[in-house]
Automatic annotation (TrEMBL):
GO terms for cellular component: membrane. It is found in: Membrane. PANTHER family: G-TYPE LECTIN S-RECEPTOR-LIKE SERINE/THREONINE-PROTEIN KINASE SD2-5 (PTHR47976), G-TYPE LECTIN S-RECEPTOR-LIKE SERINE_THREONINE-PROTEIN KINASE LECRK1 (PTHR47976:SF108). This is Receptor-like serine/threonine-protein kinase. It comes from the Eukaryota. Residues 27-151 form the Bulb-type lectin domain. Keywords: ATP-binding, Disulfide bond, EGF-like domain, Glycoprotein, Kinase, Lectin, Membrane, Nucleotide-binding, Receptor, Serine/threonine-protein kinase, Signal, Transferase, Transmembrane, Transmembrane helix. The lineage of its organism: Eukaryota, Viridiplantae, Streptophyta, Embryophyta, Tracheophyta.
Length: 809
């Protein structure tokens, strides 16, 4: 044995260092002017041995055609490369190698052309060939390959094929849909070979769930003729094995495919029934796969995992997974189980006057877990407490109870990264509605027929009753509107101790010249400039909420209530409102210098002194909202568009439309999704209760924008490292190159680089992912004023900076 082990290792390394045979391949040349037409008989060009084919293959009985390369001598005709997976073409479409060397796909349905190898034609293409290796090539008269399908892989690599840095395989969307899907396999530019979830429907990588430890040294992936798949450095030395099963190309067809489920599998298929590996079975079998268990490998804090939201991933043999729904949940799309699951019952409402707790119960599930998305955690409690806590909480969809520790975790919709794992020792309590009448299910057809007569009679009666009710409501509504319009302006107490002017709709219509001059537009409202003739021609900003939207009525009441109680020089003053019929209108003082966004991102940059004053003013306004007004207010939408500037360029916080008020004995609140992408704190995406620290986070992003006079996200910038301002700014801070952030300034700011560095450090503290690490706005204000020192901030490392999730912006 002392001799055999080194001998085997030496033999293995010898095989790895000699990846390819040097025997030449026979070419069946495809001459210029040749073409194929998409027909039902799968027209194709064959390799010399007939083992591979290039051409059109029909997808499904009623589907289109894909231009592809496939194994031609097996019944499945498994596809290994495709040109148009995202856009199938119709019958009659053609692929053509033109007389001038262009290789193009012509879609007959819309008359479009796709150049498959656009740059190769300019270098003298003389012919094409389908090789026995599975590689389709375009070559010149000297038989030098100008283009190869091996250099442009889709989801599969074959023996003798290599992957270089920046090469990527994209898993298909489903088993029969060859569009780019939810996973990718790539050799990164920095040498790491990795599997990623894709930022679907985009193609950018999102979360890495398997990787080699080869940063800086990984150079090439080789799939050699002995069946080994491995990563080498630039000198050809072995770094990491991907598949170490020796399989003969003479006996087996082989492929390594990133499947639609996110697993990279090395497949073999016996060329004859006498093959030794695979026991002579005539189908594809798996010899190795990565990762070992994708259900547990994907552990990202955002995203649906391997099976989508609200689902459960179960790991089977050969890396196969089964996607299941919890009890009383159903697939969103039965044709695509990986889209996730939905509740098949009406969820619990959050009306405290009728909590519906008696309509809900629990289904117990063993060995299940959704490791992310906890929004509340109790320790040393019993199961009854855990059940009751979830039952009385309308946000709770699942309670997980650990009998060993007395731990209780509450999770809300959507549930992410669900998996079935025998190693899980706790109980999952799935909250379900026990009243069958409110389940989301269709009435059986037989029952429909039995009740058809009753339904007809009932329908006639309902029409008559509905007509009478509508007539009565119309009369009452018209009378109400008439009485409203007859009222004149007066001081109207909206809430206790608040007196604001109540305008009629006609007054504001006249003041705005029929709402002519638009100042801005938001998701639920439009702002117009107006002039109050009754107030000596005073200019005002008139915010008209969109009509007939229930959410706007809540927003209107929130804004009147919140702003009506406030009084601070850094807040926009509310002068009055209109609550007439369907009209919900707010009247503010007019800010002559517009929004901070137009000032920061316009042609002329504000001076450094102006930037400091605006930063400090905004901080003081937030401090007032958080700690100094009668009811603590979370603004929830701090951004440059919501900071207005008066005639002296004083910062004034506006738009309390999404404000969340807290009572004096509250420090946290759970609320629906609010705010603007890019400025929203990570806790919004974790189903976690939010606090005033979400405003601190938004202020940190805003502060960086004020310092640099640029937007937090610039997708069109040439240097990708500079796209996300927070990411770039922190990198400059660590490298002591903060002056790079001010390259477009006039020099004044660079002269005060120490002050600029301090402001950047404050911003980094504000955008910490952990809310507890962020300072309060009182601390922020003191740091900006210079009354307390600013310590060295840790890396903000927010969830979307770490994961390059640029879809967030």
């Amino acid at each position: 044995m002392a001799f055999q082990l080194p001998y085997c290792l030496c033999f293995l390394l010898t095989l790895l260092q000699m990846p390819f045979h040097t025997t030449s391949q026979t070419y069946n040349n495809i001459s210029l002017g040749s073409a194929l037409t998409a027909q039902d008989d799968n027209s194709s060009w064959l390799s010399p041995s007939g083992e591979f084919a290039f051409g059109f293959q029909k997808i499904g009985n009623d589907g289109g055609f894909i231009l592809a390369i496939w194994f031609n001598k097996i019944p499945e005709r498994s596809i290994v490369w495709s040109a148009n997976g995202n856009n199938l073409v119709q019958k009659g479409s053609t692929v053509e190698l033109t007389a001038d060397g262009q290789f193009m796909l012509n879609d007959i349905a819309n008359g479009t052309q796709m150049f498959i190898a656009e740059q190769a034609a300019a270098t003298g293409v003389a012919y094409a060939a389908m090789l026995d290796s599975g590689n389709f090539v375009l070559a010149n008269r000297n038989s030098i390959n100008l283009w190869e399908s091996f250099n442009h892989p889709t989801d599969t690599i074959l023996p003798t094929q290599t992957l270089n840095r920046n090469s990527t395989l994209y898993g298909s969307y489903t088993k029969t849909n060859y569009s780019k899907g939810r996973f990718l396999f790539t050799l990164e530019s920095k040498g790491i070979l990795a599997l990623y979830t894709a930022n679907f429907p985009f193609e950018s990588p999102n979360f890495r769930y398997w990787a080699t430890q080869t940063e800086g040294v990984g150079f090439q992936v080789i799939f050699n003729e002995s069946g080994y798949i491995y990563l080498t450095d630039i000198n050809g030395s072995l770094l990491s094995m991907v598949s170490n099963k020796e399989v003969s190309m003479h006996d087996y067809y082989q492929r390594a495919t990133l499947d639609f489920d996110g697993v990279l599998r090395h497949y073999i298929y016996p060329k004859s029934n006498g093959s030794s590996v695979g026991k002579g079975t005539r189908n594809w079998s798996t010899v190795s796969f990565k990762p070992p268990n994708i259900c547990t490998a994907i552990s990202e804090k955002i995203g649906g995992g391997a099976c989508g939201f609200n689902s459960l991933c179960k790991h089977e043999d050969e890396g196969q997974i089964i996607c299941q729904c919890p009890q009383n949940y159903t697939y969103i799309d039965t044709n695509d189980e990986r889209k996730g699951c939905k509740q098949n019952f009406v969820p619990q409402n959050c009306d405290e006057t009728s909590p519906e707790t008696h309509h809900f119960g629990f289904q117990e599930m063993l060995y299940t877990d959704w490791p992310n998305g906890d929004y509340e955690h109790f320790l040393k409690v019993n199961e009854d407490f855990c059940r009751q806590s979830c039952l009385s909480d309308c946000f709770c969809a699942v309670a997980v109870f650990d009998k060993a520790t007395g731990g209780c975790l509450k999770k809300g919709i959507p549930l992410s990264n669900g998996r079935i794992d025998k190693g899980v020792g706790w109980i999952s309590l799935i909250k379900v509605r026990i009243d069958n009448s409110t389940y989301r299910q269709e009435v059986p057809r037989a029952r429909k027929k039995e009740n058809s007569a009753l339904i007809l009679v009932g329908s006639v009666l309902m029409i008559i009753i509905s007509y009478l009710i509508v007539s009565l409501i119309t009369y009452l509504f018209a009378s109400h509107i008439y009485s409203k319009q007859a009222k004149v302006s007066k001081l109207y107490p909206v809430v206790h101790s608040i007196n604001l002017k109540c305008f009629t709709y006609m007054e504001l219509k006249e003041a705005t010249n029929k709402f002519k001059e638009e100042l801005g537009r938001g998701a639920f409202a439009t702002v117009f400039k107006g002039v109050l003739a009754s107030d000596n021609g005073r200019s005002v900003a008139v915010k008209r909420l969109d009509s007939m939207v229930r959410e706007n009525d809540l927003e209107f009441k929130a804004e009147v209530s919140a702003i009506g109680r406030t009084n601070h020089r850094n807040l926009v003053q509310l002068l009055g409102f209109c609550n007439e019929g369907q009209h919900r209108i707010l009247v503010y003082e007019f800010m002559t210098n517009g929004s901070l966004a137009s000032f920061l991102f316009g042609e002329s940059m504000p001076s450094w002194d102006q930037r400091r004053e605006i930063s400090l003013g905004t901080a003081r306004g937030l401090l007032y909202l958080h700690e100094e007004c009668s009811s603590q207010i979370i603004h929830c939408d701090i951004k440059p568009q919501n900071i207005l500037l008066d005639d002296s360029f004083t910062a004034r916080i506006a738009d309390f439309g999404v404000a969340k008020l807290l009572q004096t004995d509250q420090t946290r609140t759970t609320t629906r999704f609010r705010g603007t992408k890019g400025y929203m704190a990570p806790e919004w995406f974790k189903s976690s209760p939010v606090t005033v620290k979400v405003d601190v986070y938004s202020f940190g992003i805003l502060l960086l924008e004020i310092i640099c006079c640029r937007k937090h996200y610039e997708p069109k910038i040439e240097d990708e490292d500079q796209m996300i301002l927070a990411d770039w700014a922190y990198a400059c801070y660590k490298k002591k190159t903060l002056h790079l952030l001010l390259e477009n300034d006039n020099g004044e700011e660079i002269g005060d680089i120490k002050m600029m560095e301090k402001y950047a450090m404050i911003a980094f503290w504000c955008i910490q992912e952990d809310p507890s690490l962020r300072p309060t706005m009182k601390n922020v204000t003191q740091m900006l004023e210079g009354t307390i020192e600013v310590s060295v901030p840790p890396n903000p490392s927010s969830l979307y900076v770490n994961q390059s999730d640029r879809s967030y912006y």
